[in-house]
């Protein structure tokens, strides 16, 4: 059980970070391949950020 201070701290933290959700459908072969590849990466968050950053730099 958390205290009021912990709940307020968690609430403040949740207001500051952003999330993006991606859905992969099991019956879609393309989605399955992408999901399998993504999960094979050591750090999926850093992998996705690096891909996005490379795409952003390419478009400059």
Report the uncertain regions.
Answer: none
What number is the mean pLDDT? Answer: 94
Radius of gyration over all CA atoms, rounded: 17 Å
Number of strands: 0
Question: What proportion strand?
Answer: under 5%
Run of helices and strands: HHH
**Overall shape:** extended
Q: Please give the count of helices.
A: 3
| Largest sheet entry | none
Class by SSE composition? mainly alpha
Helical fraction equals: 55-70%
Distance between the termini: 49 Å
Write the layout of secondary structure elements.
Elements: H1 4-16, H2 29-39, H3 44-58
Question: Would you kindly provide a written description of the structure presented here, covering whatever features stand out?
Answer:
The protein has about 60 residues and is mainly α. The chain has a domain at about 20-60. About 65% of the residues lie in helices and about 0% in strands. The chain contains three helices and no strands. The protein has helices at about 5-15, 30-40, 45-60. The relative contact order is 0.07.
Defining traits:
60 residues, mainly alpha, 3 helices, 65% helix
Describe, in short, the structure shown:
This protein is an all-alpha fold and 60 residues long.
